[in-house]
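CARDB domain-containing protein
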Amino acid sequence: MIDDIYVIGNEYRNNFDIISVETDRYAASGGDHDLSITVKGIGLEAQEGVTVYAQITDSNGIRVWPTDRSFNFFEIPSDFDPDDNGISGLEKGQTFTVNPSTAGDDWTWGSGFAPGIYNLRVSAWRPDEIQVPDENPANNRKTVTLVLGATLLSGDPENWNMGNGWSSGSYVWDGVNDGSLTSESFMVWNSRPFLVVEAEYDLTDASVKAQVRAGSSGAWYNIKWRAADQLSTLYSIPSANYTQLPDSWTGSSSFDNSTSQTFFADLGTVEQLTDGSGNLQDQYVRNSMQIRLTGTNTGSGDGGTFTAFYPSVFGLDDYSVDVKDISPTTQNGEPSSSTGDEVTRTYTVKVNNYGAASDSAVVDFVITAPANSFVTLMDGTSAIMDSIIQQGRNTYVTIKPISGSWGSGRDATSGGDQTAYIGEDGLIQWPSGTEEYAQSTGWKINNPTKSSWDAVANRPMEPSASNFVNPGSTQSVNIDVTIGYAGWAPPDTYSIQADARSWSDYDNTFTSGDSDGQATMVIAKPDLSIGSDVRYISHATGFGESGVGWVKKTGGSDDPYFSFMFEVVNSGTETVGSFKVGLLDFESNPMGVQVGLYWTSSGWAIDASKTTATGADIISEGNKKYVFFQATASELGMSDGPGDSTSGAYTFYLAVDTEESVTESNENNNRVPITITAVKEVNTIPSFALSMLGITLSGLLAAIGMSLRRKEEE
């Protein structure tokens, strides 16, 4: 009689498994990622000397990590005994994790990796594997697909819509009802979009295909080829051999000890979207697309199941930058003062990182001067100012010769471009290679992306970590422009061009003439006018003198002068050089009574070399300054006096810029009409009847003539 029956199943003596491989599977390129691998004892015997191995290869099978040996490896310490029972090694149920904390920094990967799709291969073995094999080695190996790039479309539920036959639990198709898993519209801002689908399936009489379309309407196109070489399709299980490449997911995904596989395809190989060389046509970059996975039952019953884990689209173009905008797009400026305050204007340039790696933007900033911006060097050489640029961290004003050459040994002997460069310190670099100091122009571009310059590498120093932005992010850069002095800031519209450059790929990735980086700065022309407070002698008595003509006598015999005083106002930009103010005759012709003026940091000053008027001076009253000058009747063309009449009126214009040497924004407010009346003086002895009239008339005119008349505002 049998009292007890025992059923004893097979239990391994020598066996352990890799139960977990944890790392960042989807991330931007260039960063560091920790790798964590956990092994667990399964067999009855403690597993001693277990060594964990890891290696990463690119999509072509070339090892990229580690770089100095075939594998990273770490042996579980020989004294590993977590339960302190005196037995070393992995006992049944015990685990050990290899990661940077337990095994060191060698178990961090990713630094220097380019965007792409990689395979992480992990294994674990005992040193006596050949003599005493693991009794179930299937779980001693794991392969994990890693994708480094910019996420254009993630597998998150809000990005996907499940049609007939599809349900959640990742995304599961039932194999019976025809239907599609369709993505929301997404922006393809990276120029190399890849569809990545991790899938597990077992399909009979059923298949699943992937399709793409431009925009959110229109025709759907089949996604077929993995890459432009057309050696594999999206549906090919990596490393599997095929006699005929599959054009859909069908059959089983089980391969190499894994039931799920990672599939990918370059959307630039889609026949209707490609440019013929495996890249997207330009019209599809920076525009939207949609993806769908469509399940079709080709039989009459249950066709199996298909599960998509986190279907996504990643951009794998490593470095790409683009100017998003510049603000303001226009603003007014004015010259800085060579002896006073600097005038600065700020432009904010926003740059998109459209690459698949974290990157820092460098801004190229160029200011183009208005056409025919003539300037004069200290030695009298005339030139055309062309632009304000940066070379390295320094600002230069470029000038060109008016006649095509400079002369005096300053030209390039080989001919060609004869542009000269003036540095911030006034040093001129001539095309001949010679240098000489001249005046500073006052221009300066303060560009923080070029403030620290590596002269050896000829590029900016590496920015701080805070100045790197992730793929798809925007970086803002404030550019401060110090405007040049009046002699180097001719009034008109200056064109600004901001372009972007990748710091990480400095010499190869940049924009040129980006329309989104264009702006202007307007330096207004001068606007000269005469202030409202105009003073002049409007009436005077006098008499004719032999050989001289009529002479003013009001104010005393020693005061033959008519006096004039007015304020010169400039509501525009600072004037350059000297100009004349004074009198015009009734036909608006300049008279010989002129005062030369030029601007200084403290206001107007007299240019004696251009002054012909008597007593020219600048008179201060309160916070205003007035131009003062005098003229005789002869200088005013009033030698006839009143003629045969008791009085005679003469018309003039007080004017600024009498020779029209200053180009102004408003040329119609430069003059004020005035009238001066010459009154005959009565010198005869009056009769008793007329004496009171004569005295009264003479005294009244004298009083009027001795005062300055103010022009009142209406």
